[in-house]
Design goal:
By secondary structure, the chain is mostly helical. The protein contains six helices and two strands; from the N terminus they run ααααββαα. It has a domain of 92 residues: Winged helix-like DNA-binding domain superfamily/Winged helix DNA-binding domain (Arc Repressor Mutant, subunit A), CATH 1.10.10.
């Protein structure tokens, strides 16, 4: 069998990573949140309260689109608004207890799927995969430093 070219290998690698991400997300799809809704909950969980404008900026969407996302999350009882501590014109968004539970359940479902899938690999394949994970982590960290 002919050896892959570098460009073909890079493309195949990107497809494999994309497929893995889609499968991990599908494992937690039972909560039926959109990708943006899940990203907002994750950001609020990790970084704490934020304004709609801040969320729009970091997620790379228009404030109007983020407003619709936030409204949907609020209607589901996953986020709540409170007055901004210094700017009376703005509202801060934070996770509710239900929102935190949805995040925990989604994270648990993803972890369970991934752990069960990796457990089907041989010990050598698992070691190779975990070593590749470390390389991927460094690759991402190095690309962030270069920005």
């Amino acid at each position: 069998m002919a050896r892959k070219t570098f460009d073909t290998a890079v493309t195949d690698f990107a497809h494999a990573i994309g497929s893995l991400i889609r499968h991990v997300r599908a494992a937690a799809a039972s909560n039926e949140l959109s990708w943006t809704e899940s990203a907002v909950l994750g950001r609020l969980e990790k970084e704490g309260p934020a304004t709609t404008a801040e969320l729009a900026r970091v997620e790379g969407v228009k404030p109007q689109s983020m407003g619709a996302t936030v409204t949907a999350l609020e209607e589901m009882g996953l986020v709540e608004r409170s007055p901004h501590p210094t700017d009376g014109r703005q509202m801060m968004l934070s996770l509710t207890a239900k929102g935190a539970e949805v995040r925990r359940n989604a994270r648990s479902a993803k972890h369970t799927w991934l752990a069960q899938t990796i457990a089907k690999l041989s010990k050598d394949e698992q070691e190779t995969l975990f070593a590749a994970g470390e390389i991927i982590r460094r690759l991402v960290e190095n690309s962030l430093v270069e920005k």
